[in-house]
Structure to design on (247 residues):
């Protein structure tokens, strides 16, 4: 199991399109991927789950990844968030 | 979760029987309905933005729900409109199912967090509700629709 706390950097936060990108990336991996924010844990492979977090810019989420490709998954998802989901701001 | 759909949705913001059965038609119908209630809205601009957003990736989230949304300067506050289509619309959902229940979310651009909170409230309502679409379609009038949503949200808190 790998755990990491990541800050949401893009202006719009974890909005619908960003959530879809996250899920599409998460689905490339076999590992189970959970996101925790303010004590709420959701499935990182569910757009609706992610949307319920209402993770605005500046908020911190914890990624909990467990499985045979957990290292690669953590790297890829961490990069996606830090890259602001390829958004300009 | 503080914000609830039943707090955001008023009975003058429900379109019980969408007549159109195309993606464009349904969006147009909801936009002109919204225009009657929010006079400041620029209809054509809102329509185009919603279509553009759909082109980036369908907002049909699956299981019969869609959340068309965008930000426009012509609204001063968050507006949510619920549109219901009994026959369903091909909204290019990933699960290939027709969309029956549309939450149109229009928000001012200066406050992304309000928009996120509204999407979160909708996501909360629909993600564990397997029969919600059926219940909403079956409702005979607007008050029944609102009651279905209120009951569903109350059951989520138990």
């Amino acid at each position: 199991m790998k755990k990491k706390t990541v800050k949401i950097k893009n202006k719009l936060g974890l909005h619908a399109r960003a959530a879809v990108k996250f899920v599409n990336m998460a689905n490339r991996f076999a590992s189970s991927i959970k996101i925790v924010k303010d004590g709420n844990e959701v499935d990182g492979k569910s757009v609706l789950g992610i949307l319920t977090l209402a993770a605005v810019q500046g908020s911190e989420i914890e990624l909990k990844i467990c499985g045979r490709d957990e290292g690669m998954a953590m790297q890829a998802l961490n990069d996606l968030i830090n890259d602001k989901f390829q958004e300009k701001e | 979760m503080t914000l609830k759909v039943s707090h955001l949705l008023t009975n003058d913001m429900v379109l019980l029987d969408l007549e159109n059965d195309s993606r464009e038609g349904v969006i147009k119908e909801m936009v002109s309905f919204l225009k009657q209630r929010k006079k400041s809205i620029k209809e054509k601009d809102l329509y185009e933005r919603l279509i553009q957003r759909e082109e980036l990736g369908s907002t049909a989230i699956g299981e019969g729900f869609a959340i068309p949304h965008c930000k426009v300067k012509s609204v001063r506050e968050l507006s949510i409109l619920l549109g219901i289509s009994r026959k369903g619309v091909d909204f290019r959902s990933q699960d290939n199912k027709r969309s029956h229940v549309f939450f149109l979310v229009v928000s001012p651009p200066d406050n992304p967090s309000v928009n996120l909170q509204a999407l979160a409230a909708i996501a909360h309502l629909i993600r564990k509700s397997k029969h919600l679409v059926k219940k909403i379609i079956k409702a005979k009038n607007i008050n029944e629709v609102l009651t279905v949503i209120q009951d569903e949200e109350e059951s989520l808190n138990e």
In short: The mean pLDDT of chain A is 97.
